[in-house]
Amino acid sequence: MSDCLFCKMVSGDIQPNVVYEDDDVLAFRDLNPQAPTHILVIPKRHISTLNDLEPGDEALMGNLVLTAARIAEKEGIAEAGYRTLLNCNAEAGQTVFHIHLHLLGGRPMGWPPG
Ligand code: 5GP
Ligand code: ZN
């Protein structure tokens, strides 16, 4: 999608700080990190929100979670613990409308989230 920030990262028009890439998934450091480790894991295919997922997207979404777990290991936060989350639409605070899984770690996380 031409006017989507994260699609521009997938196409290379914008170059984020990439930590992992394969045929289906891109992971890069968040520009405004909320924890010592804050990485976004996105599908390369444009999907606006969780509400737009369809049957057939199971493997892709599983890939996002598995990728986050592997990155957590590499970042050295797997044992201490980390948080993964997907914001969907306004009340959850979604600001970029291309699905992205947040991987946050390196500090204790509060619960419930704000
Ligand atoms: P959301 O609020 O939609 O769940 O998360 C969007 C995330 O994208 C935010 O954490 C924000 O800091 C991050 N973000 C927004 N613009 C950019 C950018 O240009 N580069 C990178 N690396 N992250 C961005
Ligand atoms: Zn997009």
UniProtKB/TrEMBL annotation:
InterPro entries recorded: Histidine_triad_CS, Histidine_triad_HIT, HIT-like, HIT-like_sf
Superkingdom assignment: Bacteria
CDD domains in alphabetical order: PKCI_related
Motif (Histidine triad motif): 98-102
Residues at the catalytic site: H100
GO terms for MF: catalytic activity
Parts forming coiled coils: none
Transmembrane segments: none
UniProt domain HIT: residue ranges: 5-114
Protein name: Histidine triad nucleotide-binding protein
Protein's organism: endosymbiont of Escarpia spicata
